[in-house]
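To the wet lab folks,

You asked to see what we're planning to order before we commit. Fair enough. Below is the target structure as tokens, and below that is the sequence we designed to fit it. If anything looks off to you, flag it before the synthesis order goes out.
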């Protein structure tokens, strides 16, 4: 997702992944079990109900201590990751993508 700032500069703010095989640095990706993501990011994951598929579906929101600007958001069907996004806030928090 590219956004234009108030000065007119366009920056890549977020990357969305909806296919298996593209992994995070910790090794998580589409198709992984929720439990695996929770284990890989233990202590840094907040589970929230998915806007469209909750209460079964979830958002697994991963943050790093001391970094309030970046995060990873895994979307699940309640059991497995169906897609994820990573980037800077506020773009990474937008539920809808750009296309």
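Sequence we intend to order:
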């Amino acid at each position: 997702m590219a956004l234009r700032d108030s000065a007119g500069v366009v920056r890549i703010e977020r990357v969305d992944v909806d296919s298996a095989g593209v992994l995070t640095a910790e090794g998580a990706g589409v198709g992984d079990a929720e439990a695996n993501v929770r284990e890989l990011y233990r202590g840094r994951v907040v589970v929230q109900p998915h806007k469209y598929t909750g209460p079964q579906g979830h958002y697994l929101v991963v943050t790093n201590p001391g970094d309030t600007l970046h995060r990873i958001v895994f979307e699940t069907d309640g059991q497995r990751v169906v897609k994820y996004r990573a980037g800077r806030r506020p773009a990474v928090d937008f539920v809808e993508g750009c296309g």
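Structural context that might help your review: The first strand starts at residue 2 and ends at 4. The radius of gyration is 13 Å.

Thanks,
Computational group
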